[in-house]
Amino acid sequence: MAKFAPDQIHGIHAILYALFDGHEKLDRAAMRRQVEICLACGVHGMAALGLASEVAKLTEVERRTVMDWTAQDCAGKVPLAFTISGSSVAEQVAQLRHAESVGADWVILQPPPAGTYGAPEYIRFFGRVAEATDLPVAIQNAPAFFGRGLTSEEIRDLVSLHPNIRLVKGEGPVVDIAGLIEHTEGCVPVFNGRGGLELIDNLRIGCRGMILAPDCVDLAVRAYEAFHAGREDEAEAAYAEMLPAAVFVMQGIENLVCYGKRLFGARAGIAIDDRAPAMRPGAAGLAMVERFASRLGDYPR
Q1: Are 109 and 146 in contact (CB under 8 A)?
Q2: Are 300 and 218 in contact, with CB atoms under 8 Å apart?
Q3: Which of 166, 236, 249, 278 meets the CB 3.0–4.6 Å disulfide criterion with 274?
Q4: 3-state class of 116 per DSSP?
Q5: Do residues 133 and 167 touch, judged by C-beta distance below 8 A?
């Protein structure tokens, strides 16, 4: 049973990195510490198993393990979401069932990675998975990352057919997200991602919040809360402080995993190890990580 209603899902949500040890195994202590840091930063929600979590490198057992650990460490303190991915309806429903069993408050469906199809096939696919749960469901619409996606009109049709599809997780420039909000006539709350880029303008156009990896999540929380308290200058200042680092890491998903994770590790005091295959850091990138980590400082405790 979800603890948080859909109208309580808002704000800055951290999407967790998958943290590995030197043997390429999931690192339990580091994953716990990551959640503790995000909660100390005041995040309004937690999520896992998205693109930043390197979900494609995780086995089915590991995906369930991440769900178990994250639910244990969150302990119901904030709304909890898991991204659901898989090549078939059955695979996604199986993951959804485990998310339900550990107490997820909502789930985010990704399009199946196999093949490229027309919008009616994706609408049917999402609908069948959504019908398998009573949890609020979001659709992750990220054509730039997945190579497939739905138009604003198609999302509106999907939401009208399946009432428990209650949110959209976008991944796009603010002008595109503004068009999505306009064309869906506000019938479905929209979150954006992209590492928090254009954060303040996303809030201005009516985004419910942002879902981003934790390397700059403390500043994103500060910006969000200042904006909604009417202190726009303070919000802009917090965003300006995080922006150079956000631009640095958001040059693509592999760059985010390589350097964004290392920026998080530098600020958290956590050693970062990769799971192959992986983009390996270069000297210039590591120097930038060190410089940004020094400027941003350690996370709140």
Answers
A1: no
A2: yes
A3: 278
A4: coil
A5: no
Q: For the domain 8-239, what is the CATH superfamily, name and number? A: Aldolase class I (3.20.20.70)
Dihedral pair phi/psi, residue 28, rounded to 5°: -60, -45
Q: What does the alpha-carbon distance between residue 185 and residue 180 come to, in Å, rounded to a whole number?
A: 8
Q: Provide the residue-wise pLDDT of the chain in tens; the chain has 301 residues.
A: 568 888 889 999 999 999 999 999 999 999 999 999 999 999 999 999 998 999 999 999 999 999 999 999 999 999 999 999 999 999 999 999 999 999 999 999 998 987 788 888 998 999 999 999 999 999 998 777 777 778 888 888 888 889 899 899 988 899 999 998 998 877 889 999 999 999 999 999 999 999 999 999 999 999 999 999 999 999 999 999 999 999 999 999 999 999 999 999 999 999 999 999 999 999 999 999 999 999 999 998 7
**Sequence-separated (6 or more) residues with CB below 8 Å from residue 230:** none
For residue 256, how far is the Cα from the chain centroid? 12
The CA-atom distances, in angstroms, between 301 and each of 218, 222, 253 are 11, 15, 28
Domain coordinates in residue numbering, the chain: 8-239
The letter for the amino acid at 41 is C
Quick count: other Cβ atoms within 10 Å of Cβ 196?
28
Give the Cα separation of 152 and 182 in Å (integer).
Answer: 9
Nearest-angstrom CA–CA distance, 226 and 96: 35
What does the angle CA 74 – CA 10 – CA 255 come to, to the nearest 5 degrees?
A: 75
Q: What is the spatial distance between Cα 191 and Cα 17, in angstroms, rounded to a whole number?
A: 19
Dihedral (CA of 10, 233, 239, 178) sign = positive
Question: Secondary structure of the chain: what % helix, strand, coil (to 5)?
Answer: 50, 15, 35
**Cis status of the peptide bond prior to 277, with omega within 30 of 0:** yes
Q: Is the dihedral of CA 108, 45, 7, 98 positive or negative?
A: positive
